[in-house]
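REQUEST ID: PR-0412
SUBMITTED BY: lab tech R.K.
PRIORITY: routine
TASK: structure prediction, single protein chain
INPUT:
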Amino acid sequence: MPTKEPKIALIHDWLTVPGGSERVLEVLHKMYPEAPIFTTIYNKKNFPQFSDAKIITSHLDKIPLAHKKYQIFIPLMPKAVESYDLSNYDIIISDSHACAKGAIKAKGAYHICYCHTPLRYVWFPDIDQRANSSWIRKKAANYLKKWDLATINRVDEYYGNSNYICQRIKTIYHRDAGTIYPPVDINKWKTSDRVGKYFLFVSRLVSHKKAEIVIEAFNRLERPLKIVGDGPELENLRKIAKPNIEFTGRISDDELKNIYSQTQALIFPSIDDFGIVPIEVMASGRPVIAINKGGASETIVEGKTGLHFENVTPEAIISAVQKFNLNNFDSSEIRQWAEKFDTSLFIDNIKKAVAKATDKLEK
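STATUS: complete
OUTPUT:
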């Protein structure tokens, strides 16, 4: 019989700019509010949702430049992660897309890794262009790869955020992993009987999200396209876009609800580990036209909740849009499919993973 509840610690790569992995951490924090969050760098002003959390940072957090230029410090993060004092914790849950999975647990403790991807910046420079342009790939890739491989077995149980990522884990780490899809608040989004004439692209406007290819396709299609988001590529994208393309910038969730629920379809060309935006749009009852790679290859059902294209080219997107007919899709059926990715299912699956770990600690 257990004598006490296991003490849990959460580990996150860095808390600098909100994104998909931070949504996962937010849910984990709500599930285990007493668990401290260990992270290399913490830009507090960007994360009011963690104001009640105990955040323990590494020495890198004391470097002012690290809050804005965190990527140049990635080669230093292995040592920073290894410096955490986890001696008092029975179960470690790392929320990892870089180095968090390499933390050193206490003897007899159990480490669950919720893996968004093996270390993105060195294993997948062809997918993530941020790695191509950085000195990380050029100067530190070999060191980071060796460290990443050397720390594989610090994790007792891997879970990937999609089947796609589980296959990556198998290929690179030679470890089996179970799939737990990330949490999406399905009830936050609404359906609508009104449908506009526009298609939709939603993303931070950075090069690897492929907005310029979508713009080129719609320049030629001459059909309405709304681009929602902000980022360093915004001004360059404005210059190449024709008048049929509207840039909304960053908008409120209420505005986004209306735009999601009234679009013809979302255009999703990036090869994401999972891809939360397509799920949000499907929760709004609208279909998605997406690359048949990455998470979108398994979250979008061809002909039922959207269409796939095979290559990220203007021609492939044009062909898919020309093939698309909204009358072939049922809004309620799309919404019902999206419910398979609700936050409640993520919570249930994490609880099962923790219960399994607890059981093994007691044996």
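NOTES: The domain at 186-340 is CATH 3.40.50.2000 (Rossmann fold).
REVIEWED BY: pending
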